[in-house]
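If you are new to this repository, start here. Below is one unmodified record pulled from the training split, so you can see the exact layout before writing a loader.
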Amino acid sequence: MIPTDLTASPSSDPLRVYRYRDGLYAVDLLSAAVVHLDLFNWLAGLTEAATEAKLRAHFGLAERPADVMVTLLVANGFLERREGALHLTEVAREFLLAGSPWDVTPYYASMKDRPVCLDFLKVLRTGKPANWSSLEDEGDWHRAMETEAFATAFTAAMDCRGVLLGQKLAAELNLEGFDHVLDVGGGSGIYACALVAANPHLRATVMEKEPVDRIARECITKRGFAERVDVVVGEMFGDRYPEACDVHLFSNVLHDWDVPEVKALLARSAEALPEGGLLVVHEAFLNDAKTGPLPVAEYSALLMNVTQGKCYSTGEMRQFLTEAGFEWVGHMDTVIDRGFLLARKP
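And here is the target side for that same chain:
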């Protein structure tokens, strides 16, 4: 069923429903750190403070996945970042070190051969995403999206999630004075539809590559927004962004990519937006200190495993936006651990 009334709110709170799915991979990343890397005992045995760079060098880890792992351990209260170094917390010393009477490492060792846990070891060392859901006959998310069957199933999954997330985004985002939203990599068009449903003056364009563009047109038509939301075929890293759009939306897009790709997309947006144009980044964000929120750190583990990205902090995003030439406007939380950042082209 494709909901057509995008202003109707649910009567109950689905937070736990979302968080189980979003945090699905976190236990496997923790198991990899505890059992396969034996990270906590290594830290305990050092005679000098360990930086994240030293940790990566010792275990042979790529920067992106190592950052996600450390952030997860910090958000859980197992590690602390202090003065540029990593330190064990009392919880880690009591429950994750050999020789402690409360050591639970063997408890996690019983899970060490789970497929996702083993995949994490490869991702941590190569920086390359694993196959989708650890399936041998499926590629990573980026390659799988080029096939009709996977693209259809995945877009449907993101569409049902977006019904609530899009509605809450539209409720909090003030688009008075703006005319046309470009939804970059907009999937089914659910966020574009939610925005025009809440703003009668607004039009929107969804930019998607094949075969998702066809799926988007079908979903938009079924929702009754075909006259106000159109779809253009385009590859967001290479094709020219449509003109006459004074708002650019990246909704759950940047978290699929590593830092160079994120910066490239923001630069393309800055180039295409008119003066005074608005950029909206809708994601799950870590806090500036990257100590949480824990559900976002857990979700980042999933993204790190199956995409080339991760969850970024608001501080990191502010830096990227400034480097791209945007003026920072602000950050607002919405629902289910999500929120949006606003920036304006001077």
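Two things worth knowing about this chain: The longest strand covers residues 327-333. The chain has two domains: 22-140, 144-344.
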